[in-house]
Amino acid sequence: MSSHSEVPAVSVEAYEPPYYAAVFTTVRTQDQSGYSETNARMEDLVKDVPGYLGMDHAQTPGGLGITVSYFRDADALTRWRTDTEHRAAQQRGRAEWYQSYTLHVAKVERSHGFTRAQVSQSPTAG
Fold first, then answer.
1. Which end of the chain is more exposed for a tag (fewer CB within 10 A), N or C?
2. Other residues' Cβ atoms within 10 Å of the Cβ of residue 68
3. Span 35-78, pLDDT tens digits
4. Would you say 69 and 86 are in contact if contact means Cβ atoms under 8 Å apart?
């Protein structure tokens, strides 16, 4: 949900299906007062939801933000959607921070991943 350019890029691992993905795309307004703080709080808060698996986020130079949050089951997603503090942040987002947004919820039926093995280099390698 936030710009983490100082953090190395690491995607959420492929989990054993089925699980749920909430795909949240946004275009933000010019006034972002308080957004970073609220965003950081939401990232911390969602981690406490039983069944939360992780989150991927990307921001295009043109301003399109894409956040994909992963949840073990529909109940976990509902707990997050109905969390009181999250609901207040949603309302503030509509009132102040988002020009537009779209939310897609999908049940993941297939999932796999790949990670390149680290090649250790000796100090004398050229």
1. C
2. 18
3. 999 999 999 999 999 999 999 999 998 889 999 999 999 999 99
4. no
